[in-house]
Design brief:
A hairpin with a 2-residue loop joins strand 6 and strand 7. The termini are far apart. The strands form 3 sheets. Strands 1-11-8-13-5-4-3-2 form an 8-stranded antiparallel beta sheet. A 3-stranded antiparallel beta sheet has the order 10-9-12, with no helix packed on it. The protein has a two-stranded antiparallel ribbon with strand order 6-7. With about 280 residues, it is of the alpha+beta class. The protein has one domain (about 5-40, about 45-225, about 250-260): Jelly Rolls. It is globular. The mean pLDDT is about 90. It contains 7 helices and 13 strands.
Length: about 280
């Protein structure tokens, strides 16, 4: 169900682009909701959405974006990429599937204005369990695989995501990484030798292993870049920022989506009372 060329390019480059992954109607419905959301201060909540930044000039995030309504809920197991994610995270037929195939440990919408970017991060060196890329005995076993969806056209000057193809397998740190990594003043990947911009049309998606060195160019054009990111891993993972899905969300999700959002509900044992 996953084209052989996608498997080949993901293994080789660490990412694959899905053109037209979302329809114009899907993109329009999500943008309509985002148009109505107020920009509360980072750290504040709007319903079950949390305003957030990564502490640099990287734009504005609404975390837990699957709480924003049905168009975002549909992204959880979207047919355009769910089989890719299952293949690349791996674990089918093993204990990793004991509570389901996947878990989303972070999902957010990002708004990026002129002058904003995010610096270089991740890469094969130093190795990190969460970001591991592994292919062994005929199967992928990746600790985290991301789907980044474009809700606006993202071309030259729009603050495109940048990646260093193949860096998920690197045994060495990039010699110029310190100049381009995430910093409060907003360093970017621009000028990093080997980095390329990933240009997308609204509705396109890029799947990439989180272990690839990535970041973004600084937005130079007027207007706003909008994307949604979902980070998938094995079902035994935990939320990156300590969030939890709301009871209302869990109640309205399909069983398959609920299993990805909350693979294993927490059990609390009530204290037993002694009988008189």
């Amino acid at each position: 169900m996953v084209p052989d060329i996608d498997t080949y390019l993901f293994d080789l480059r660490g990412y694959v682009i899905l053109r037209g992954a979302l329809s114009a109607d899907e993109v329009g419905r999500m943008n309509a909701i985002l148009d109505e959301l107020p920009r509360v201060e980072p750290g504040e909540w709007y319903g079950h959405l949390h305003a957030h930044t990564y502490g640099t000039k990287d734009g504005y995030n609404y975390q837990q974006i699957y709480e924003a309504g049905e168009p975002f809920e549909e992204l959880i197991d979207h047919p355009s990429w769910i089989e890719h994610i299952k293949l690349f995270v791996g674990g089918e037929g093993t204990f990793d599937y004991h509570h389901g195939p996947l878990f989303i440990d972070e999902c957010f919408a990002n708004f990026r204005a002129p002058g904003e970017a995010i610096g270089l991060h991740s890469g094969g060196h130093p190795p990190i369990h969460r970001n591991q890329f592994r292919y062994h005995s005929g199967r992928f076993m990746c600790g985290q695989v991301n789907v980044l969806m474009a809700l606006t056209d993202i071309g030259a000057g729009d603050g495109a995501t940048m990646v260093i193809p193949g860096s998920h397998k690197s045994n060495f740190a990039h010699p110029h990484a310190a100049e381009h990594r995430m910093k409060p003043e907003g360093a970017t990947v621009e000028g990093t030798e080997g980095a390329v911009e990933v240009h997308l049309q609204a509705g396109d998606a890029v799947i990439f292993v989180d272990g690839i060195s990535h970041g973004s160019a600084r937005r130079a054009n007027a207007g706003e870049r909008r994307i949604v990111v979902q980070r998938y891993g094995p079902s035994w993972g935990n939320f990156r920022h300590g969030y939890a899905p709301s009871p209302q969300l869990l109640q309205r999700l399909t069983p398959a989506r609920r299993q990805i959002v909350q693979p294993q509900p927490l059990l609390v044992r009530e204290p037993q009372r002694k009988q008189d």
